[in-house]
Amino acid sequence: MTKFQIYPAIDLRDGKCVRLFQGDYAQETIYGDSPVEMAKKFVEAGAQWIHMVDLDGAKDGVRVNDQVVIEAAKLGARVQVGGGIRTREDIQHYLSNGVARVIIGSLAIRNPELAVSFIEEFGAEQIVIGIDAKNGMAATEGWIETSGQAATEVANYFASKGAKHFIYTDIATDGTLAGPNIEANKILVDSEEAEIIVSGGIGSLEDVLKVKEASAQSNIAGVIIGKALYEKRFTLEEALSC
User: Fold this and answer.
1) How far is Cα 156 from Cα 190, in angstroms, rounded to an integer?
2) Dihedral angle sign, alpha carbons of residues 54, 127, 140, 110
């Protein structure tokens, strides 16, 4: 298991830095006009990774805010990005422009064979399987649609095909600051090789500590923090020193 990582999050919509409440595009809060400046602040605070999501891309199924992501990837921290990634060209575009990891979400649900071919071609270190779930069921298209597959079923399938990195987002907790669904993350995948990044619900340093403690006895390898940082519940420096 690699070192436990903190991933400050930057969600992009209309070129701005935003957060949604439970994945609802109608419940958006804008936290900054310059995502690159936000990324720079995270790097200055000591971030080794930054988690970025192209919300426009996730909704429309095409890259929209990719140039912002590429600019952020030049600042010193490694960047992982999701949203609107549907083709081999999308992945190549990001990886060849300095992005460290690409997250495949909706595509993994709709076309698992293609997703597996991307893992085989680009390597398990550069492809992350993003699983967003409502009531334990995988959701797609920026959380607008719910599939008929259990999140655990999806995760175990991809683990059996060589996937190593997973991001599990519990939509019910995302943007709520109400605490993460740690238990769902613990049982997501059976493979000892898999590493899970917890996403959704972080509202306090205590939440961060709970996730980190859970990582000692599970596949959990990191946590994504978004709204809590923007609402100044605590600083990134404090989270990194947990």
Assistant:
1) 7
2) positive
Closest C-alpha among 118, 80, 199, 211 to residue 151: 199
Residue 11 CA to residue 31 CA, distance in Å, equals 10
Query: What is the distance between the alpha carbons of residues 127 and 91, in angstroms, rounded to a whole number?
Result: 9
Residue with tokens 């090789």: 193
Q: How far apart are the first and last CA of the chain?
A: 18
Q: Rounded to an integer, what distance in angstroms lies between the CA atom of residue 133 and that of residue 79?
A: 23
CA quadruple 199, 111, 13, 35: dihedral, nearest 10 = 60
Q: Which residues pair with 222 in a beta bridge?
A: 5, 197
Instruction: Give the CB-side neighbour count of residue 71, counting CA atoms within 13 A.
Output: 12
Helix (H, G, I), strand (E, B) or coil at 156: helix
Rounded distance between C-alpha atoms, residue 33 and residue 31, angstroms = 7
Minimum mean pLDDT range among 19-33, 37-51, 116-130 = 19-33
Mean pLDDT of 103-123: 94
- Verdict on whether the full-model pTM lies above 0.85: yes
Whether 11 sits among the annotated catalytic residues: the reply is yes
Q: Are strands 78-82 and 49-54 parallel, antiparallel or unpaired?
A: parallel
**What pLDDT score was predicted for residue 21?**
74
In the residue annotation, 132 being an active-site residue is answered as yes
The backbone torsions φ and ψ at residue 67, rounded to the nearest 5 degrees and listed phi first, read -65, -35
CA distances from 155 to 5, 61, 82, 138, 239 (A): 20, 22, 17, 10, 28
Question: Of these residues, 56, 66, 90, 132, which one is catalytic?
Answer: 132
Give φ, ψ of 59 to 5 degrees: -80, -40
Could you give the CA distance from residue 152 to residue 133 in angstroms, rounded to a whole number? 10
